[in-house]
Design brief:
The complex is a heterodimer of chains A (384) and B (374). With 384 residues, chain A is of the alpha+beta class. Chain A has helices spanning 7-23, 29-32, 34-43, 63-75, 83-96, 99-111, 227-238, 242-260, 273-301, 313-332, 349-359, 369-379, and strands spanning 116-119, 135-138, 144-152, 162-168, 179-185, 191-198, 202-216, 220-221, 263-264, 267-268. The longest helix of chain A is centred in the C-terminal third of the chain and has 29 residues, at 273-301. The chains are: A alpha+beta (384), B alpha+beta (374).
Chain lengths: 384, 374
Amino acid sequence: MDIEFSEEDLAFQQEVRSFIEENLPKGMDLWTKRGDWFKALREKGGWDVPKWPPEFGGPGFTPTQRYIFDMEMARHSTPPQLPFGVTMLAPILMAYGSKEQQDRFLPGIRDGSVNWCQGYSEPGAGSDLANLKTKAELTEDGKHYIVNGQKIWTTLAHIAHWIFCLTRTSSAGAKQEGITFLLFPMDSPGVEVRPIITLGGSHTVNEVYLTDVKVPVENRVGEEGKGWTYAKGLLAHERTGLAGIQNSVLALEKAKENAASIKVGDGTLLDVPAFRNKLGALEAELLALEFTELRTLASVAAGGSPGPESSILKLKGTEIQQRIQELNLEAAGVYAAVWGNKAAGPKFAKGAMSAYLGGRATTIYGGASEVQKDVISKNVLGLG
Amino acid sequence: MDLSYTEEQQMLRDSVQKFIEDNYDISERNKLTATDEGFSRDNWKQFAELGWLAMPFAEEDGGLGGSPVDTMILMEEFGKGLVVEPFFPTVVLAGSALSQFGSADQKAEVLAGIIDGSIIATFAYAEEGAHHNLDHVATTATKDGDFYTLSGTKSVVLNAASADRMLVSARTSGDVSDEAGITVFLVDAGADGISRDDYPTVDGLRASEVTLKDVKVPASAIVGKEGSGHDVLEAVSNRAILALAAESVGAMEKLYTDTIAYTKQRVQFDHPLSEFQVLKHRMTEMFMEHSLAKSLTMKATMLETQGSDETQRTIHALKYLIGKSSRFVGQNAVQLHGGMGMTEELRIAHYFKRLAIIDSQFGNTDHHLTRFVA
């Protein structure tokens, strides 16, 4: 066993750090010059799409390089890309889409000119996603599908140009059969987006109503009725990995800074044993979780498959995120209440409340924690 | 021992329940929180007419001679209804300070106005840098003949924009965190030298940062004695915690019963969610947390009513327990509602936010657990 990276990997890490140092816009420029950043990543040799294989313009990282790359990006808080196109849809198109579909959609996904949203969940299909009812019927001439139904919790549907959508083309057989994967523009006649205002008043998710939406058959990905298989592959891509853990490492550092800024008696909140112990417990668990991720990496890098321990990453990672959010809220003290456009008390207070409220969703979306535990107990532990 | 409510108390509970049933479904409440003041003056008038604003005060002060138990009954029902009228700052905070420490003149003028509904009042106690320590008072009160001049900034003053009167803790002597040397003043909310920065709070209520700049008040504005403001703060804090605990118990009851109702009708994997063992156990735990919180709220309220020696320690235990159980019940109610729990459309989200704020008021779980074990 060797806990250190190889010489080559360390050199790569240095290369990534230097690249970030030279190219990442500083301060407020981070927002105005995002385009420059992504351009530099692209010109570096596909670093804008680190997960894409070389034949589609990706950098062809080894698993260890991927890990190092993601870790450095997270540690330096580089601007994230919307995941729906680059991370979620693109791998499906590469694996199951036609050459025409790849040529048509991948460039817009890569340069960010086309925003995508994911049309999966429905009012009756949340954790039980295969229960979806949105119907797609083939026209008599076989040239179009007519789509009717409703999607819900559709993130950023209100700014999306296109949607990738799971639809039901057959009710025969098991629920997982008869699901078809369609792509269509959000400005198609019959698509209506209604906002859902979530805890804390933000608008990120939507309801999407689909009424007689006409979708050409050439916008079907893969075969009719195989959509579930494709989507399951895609859900694997959604699994929160390293980025979430590195973000938590950063968030915990920030939580310490926040606590250090709060005066309590002659010291600060960091000196209060009850608070300090909670921070310490989180740090210890995070160390263990980071190394769990490394164990997963090591077994993949050695040519194996991720070990059973990889299944706990999302579960434990989201739990830790939420506990860090709680600590920030506690540090905000009475100022946790302040809302609206005004600010009062420590600068982090309002952000702490928003993060706490919004953070409750992380153990719900992408498979509620309870369902994840069911899956692990069945698939990993063999418990029926 | 008799833990049952008296006939009057049952009537009180029934009348609040009826009021909430008639006036307080979630869409009505959301309309109120969207108004300028964030509550209804008409409702406030009704509170006065129903005698709720007079309930805890002594008969000789014009009250109905109720006890903290009556306040508990009111607050528990207010918690279920997510009531937004300024009962807590006016009756619980300002009211208990004036009824326990106020002069005859202060009672005749201000307490009487609170009771008849004509005066809305609040207590400006929190300051930046205090982090739950009520004795951390940087606001100064300088004596000048028969007058005092107040200067400083107070934080998160509930309903300050609607308040006619404001109690303010200020330092007349000693260092910034000394227990001695704090004095509580009764100040006209519109007095020269008072400015406010008003904002909504995340739970839909209203608060302000209040700055006092050379605000001149007569010596007769002192509530209690000069330099003994710590006693006033402690007494008010205890009543505040009892009230907030009762409100939390009401909110938690709604959270776990709403969750049970939701999981019975929400079908996934061909079964109602309520049939999954892991969720059944979770809801059982929510019920357990609520039951324990309710028990300790009742015990602490009765000890306070009797004036028992155990009161202070029990109140520390209570605020700790309320914070812990509220977090568990609130978070799991959201979790078990899935995406629906994240929406502003359901009551769940509003109870959840309210409970998060209650933990930040008058000392959080760590603050009180530390004092409980001290």
